[in-house]
């Protein structure tokens, strides 16, 4: 294997029980998580033409994987460090506090969006029901049991399913930190076992009491990706070597699987060569047949199928190599207008990534309102451009506002 420049800029430790921890904020982490926040906003604006060009249209994985993986890495710094410094009980308390925050963020997001949709239907004379567009008709028709369901997470409507998944995954952290005292093997074994159970249908959570629909994001499947990021940042898994062989292998996997992981790419291939498209259709059918016969998810987003995992790891490896050791290639070292623009852009994207929870909650709320604006103004290229850019400006503003409040400027500077 031809090596370009081996690196170990993830902190590697000899065992999972080792107290050595990376505490510094990795610039690549915030940069890529910031990129994911912009993509998530674009993806959630209803009937947004820009959503035809997000990563989800070109492969199995998408911005959700970026968010979950980077959240695992960030949690290794914020919460893993608390376990290392203060012990298991205080580390668990730190995680419980974050779960509490995410829980109330979920509750607030649901009621705010529900209120907006109700206001549009109540006070506007539109040719569609915005309540029904989110499938909230049953909630408003019989609110009392549904309010109980919202607070107990036994009623999790689609669109409001990412934060519940995230808080359950966070709640698993004390278990994995306890296992890490034995070593990394029990951690990896438990994570893989839970993921396998989810992918064969043994572990799921019902999303509503009147149907068999499960949570769209099964936390027992998605925890594998979260704790992969967590393990890399804790040093439980060493950084992969930077090599031409791995780079070409990852790139080849992304390109060659695109027609099978993306309907959009398949249509391009089919238009260029119907015979090749017919052959690809057979492979699509083979995937479906194999999943039905084995009961094992290969591509499913709900259970986080194995092909999504491999696809994301391939993409993440290329992004990690592209950023360079410590993110040095992200930094603009030159002079001139272009370098200044990139430095400012990097600063803004990083700020959005640093405040990802506040930005995510706000973007999910504002996306519905931006979709309403497009409904009223039309979806010409100019209006779509204006609405998306307005959304970008708004989430950037929220990131800076959240950072300002977190700094607690009212305390003043100590003499």
UniProtKB/TrEMBL annotation:
The chain crosses the membrane at residues 31-54, 66-88, 100-126, 146-172, 184-203, 215-233, 245-266, 306-323, 386-405. The keyword Transmembrane helix applies. It comes from the Bacteria. Keywords: Membrane, Transmembrane, Transmembrane helix. This is OpgC domain-containing protein. It comes from Sedimentitalea todarodis.
